[in-house]
Amino acid sequence: MSPMRSMSSVSPKGPTGPKSPTREVVLTLGPATARVRTRAVLTVATLALLAFAGLVASVSLGTFAVPVGDVLGVLFGGGPADARLIVLDLRLPRALTAVLAGLAFGLAGAVFQAVTRNPLASPDLIGISAGAGAGAVAAIMFGGVTAAGAATFGAVPFGALAGALVSAVLIYLLAYRGGTITGYRFVLVGIAVNGALAALTRWMLARADIDQAARAMTWLTGSLNGRGYDHVRWVGIALLLLVPLTLALVRPYQLLQFDDDTARSLGMPLARARIALLLLATCLAALATSAAGPVAFVALGAPHIARRLAGTAGIPLITSGLVGAALLVLADLAARLVLDPIELPVGIVTGAVGAPYLLLLLARANRAGRGG
Amino acid sequence: MALRSNPPAEPEAELPEPAAPRAGAALTGRGLRLGYGSRVVADELDLAITGGRVTALVGPNACGKSTALRALARLLKPTAGVVHLDGTDIQELPARALAQRLALLPQTPTAPDGITVRDLVARGRTPHQRWWRQWSREDELVVDAALAATGSAELAERSIDELSGGQRQRVWIAMALAQDTDVLLLDEPTTYLDLAHQVDVLELVVGRNRDRGTTVVMVLHELNLACRYADHLVAMRDGAVVAAGPPAEVVTPELVEDVFGLRATVIECPVAGTPLVIPEGGRRVGPTGG
């Protein structure tokens, strides 16, 4: 690494001097430049550490506690043999699935909210999760998932992914008008699709036998119980593709938070950018849901929390993803420990924390005239 | 990996040289049919915007003037006819290339919550940036110049949510100026402002035209201010151009009655010598778009 000097490019020029200066650094590499905000970088680093700490705690705590030192030892390739068994074979896949699915939920929520300019748009409210739910329940009932196979990687994630994508296609087709999809129509159509798919799921549950219904209900609440390396690979490989694509669209993502006319007069091919971002967010949400179930609140709440933390204009993308990752891994840890030895589905924890937050949010949105 | 830094910024030292006045680009619309869905707002509409001049589109509510402006900015695609920017069909220009030459300030723009004035103005540089070149020395200078030109420099670190209506409008104009285009379109830039701030905004925009030769087209409601600040008036009614030309030639009692359905006396403004419309009040005459 060659030495790096940085330039603090913005200093307020008012006579009062720096009140709350936006500290930022411009990095230069040949003709390439990037603007980086100090606070945003600190937030991202802190959240990444928090998510990692959550992962370590989640692997360390439980019926057989593994000392943190041993956990770190195992994670970096050493550690005692019994710790290796508990960490690598039993707990790590679940914690990793939580981190990855949380990341996907957070990114998806940020994109949905930014692109629709609606603070309540999230996959749990606009039909994506309901589609995944219908698909998963169908897989449980008709996909030959046996009680023994329920905990392994089987038809359920595929069913959930297919269900989410089918419902997304339905929403796009119904919301598409005049060459593009407006955020408002997308949300309204999504809510309608959400209702229809929830009804379909209930109809299937009413016909299910009691074992299938119990398994379906657990899945529908959102649970990370019994996740293995199949799930980690499933989510991880897809994220390797989806995250870079999403980050590549960060500039359109930022401009879409302006009104349409302003975004377009700044040179944004609006219709294409919006559809591309909505498709990516749909894939991210569908993927996360297929691995963790329709966990409540993470996609909805992560962008709001991220915005408070980062102090930037609009919704910070990467920060939202990391908040989602930290939220889900910590909520799953709580779900395992709160009523130990009874293990709660993680969706109950996120729902219990998220519902009051959502009410607060609705009250504020109504005051600002955006809640409808 | 060789990371090196830009030279340190010297705040007060250098603002960009006042660019040599460019002959602002001309905009023409020919045979335009404009509408939303099946509703046709204007048909067979011809518009000629002279380069380097200030043009005001005036007319009663719903006469199609904002729609015409949106067509000039390519925000609305005509179902017939063509808009040329200095002879090039604007439909053939890539979005970024058009945005480098033509800026539009919508009537009620919205920005992400909590954005600071400087960040908002910096967004005006978007069409000049690439994902691998997010910020250049030139961006910095142009943004500083736009903040200075609009008297917004001391607001730079404030959130736009905290600003008054007049301040906020100046900041939005600063963003459009930072886009550094030959053509600047403004949709009712003075709406919701008191008279002093209306004058303020118009002087700012006209000053840009005088300094840089930027072609300015704005939709204005206030006929007297349009007469005062525009070189060229385009009066519209029911989606058609009724009269076009310098205010002193165009604005007559007959035109005001014809376009606005308002009986009025037109005198010479004692300050600027431009036409001054004095409404006579009383019964509205003639059918006009409401």
From TrEMBL, chain B:
<dbReference type="InterPro" id="IPR003593">
    <property type="entry name" value="AAA+_ATPase"/>
</dbReference>
<keyword id="KW-0547">Nucleotide-binding</keyword>
<protein>
    <submittedName>
        <fullName>ABC transporter ATP-binding protein</fullName>
    </submittedName>
</protein>
<feature type="domain" description="ABC transporter">
    <location>
        <begin position="27"/>
        <end position="263"/>
    </location>
</feature>
<dbReference type="InterPro" id="IPR003439">
    <property type="entry name" value="ABC_transporter-like_ATP-bd"/>
</dbReference>
<keyword id="KW-1003">Cell membrane</keyword>
<keyword id="KW-0406">Ion transport</keyword>
<keyword id="KW-0408">Iron</keyword>
<feature type="region of interest" description="Disordered">
    <location>
        <begin position="1"/>
        <end position="20"/>
    </location>
</feature>
<dbReference type="GO" id="GO:0006826">
    <property type="term" value="P:iron ion transport"/>
</dbReference>
<dbReference type="GO" id="GO:0016887">
    <property type="term" value="F:ATP hydrolysis activity"/>
</dbReference>
<dbReference type="GO" id="GO:0005886">
    <property type="term" value="C:plasma membrane"/>
</dbReference>
<keyword id="KW-0472">Membrane</keyword>
<dbReference type="InterPro" id="IPR027417">
    <property type="entry name" value="P-loop_NTPase"/>
</dbReference>
<keyword id="KW-0813">Transport</keyword>
<dbReference type="InterPro" id="IPR051535">
    <property type="entry name" value="Siderophore_ABC-ATPase"/>
</dbReference>
<dbReference type="GO" id="GO:0005524">
    <property type="term" value="F:ATP binding"/>
</dbReference>
<dbReference type="InterPro" id="IPR017871">
    <property type="entry name" value="ABC_transporter-like_CS"/>
</dbReference>
<dbReference type="Pfam" id="PF00005">
    <property type="entry name" value="ABC_tran"/>
</dbReference>
<keyword id="KW-0410">Iron transport</keyword>
<keyword id="KW-0067">ATP-binding</keyword>
